[in-house]
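Meet today's protein:

…
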Amino acid sequence: MNTPSLIVTVCCIGLGLQCGNPFFPPTGMPAEQTSQRATPQGLLDQLIESYETQRIDLFIDLLPDDGSFQFFIAPDFFDEYKIKYQQLSEARDVRLQFIGQSEYYYYWTQDMEEERHKRLFSKGTSIEFTEKPTLASVREFTDGTDTLAELLVAGGKFEYTWYPDAYTIEVFIVEIAQQVFLINRDSENLWVIRKWYDFSSEAGQ
């Protein structure tokens, strides 16, 4: 055995035979990967990642397969949006503790929210969080046989950069303020967002 071969052999033994053989790849089931949606914090992390990477697939993955997601407009913009979009309304969800005491809340549907995010991600050059939202409180409860959780998300700020034309760059600073999410588990026992309540003071696009 020449010296270079000896060195390679010793290195493999020293690493616990981890160097592997390219002609005999490992067999068996692949290592299980844990979804971020396994925990409420992971769900929030995936939402932030979807913005930073501008990946609509990551965002849609957070929503239920049956299309039942609802995005609830901030109370400051009830009058503006219900005229502009002829919004649907829903009486206050009495199961939730963090959404205030308004009698009715106006919302748009999952299809509309997916389209809004497609435009947001496709038009933007970059989305960068200068302050990431934090999970301030998690309240789990049951509704019959369904396990749900109410998330209070506080703070957060991101810079949205885009080029309206070849000669102009615009940067918007978006203050997220407070958000409330109602989440439950899907058929794979992973969390999805059923309802998203916005309590910001800046109108979205």
Q: What stands out?
A: The chain has five helices and ten strands. The first strand starts at residue 70 and ends at 72. Confidence is low (pLDDT under 50) at residues 1-32. The radius of gyration is 23 Å.
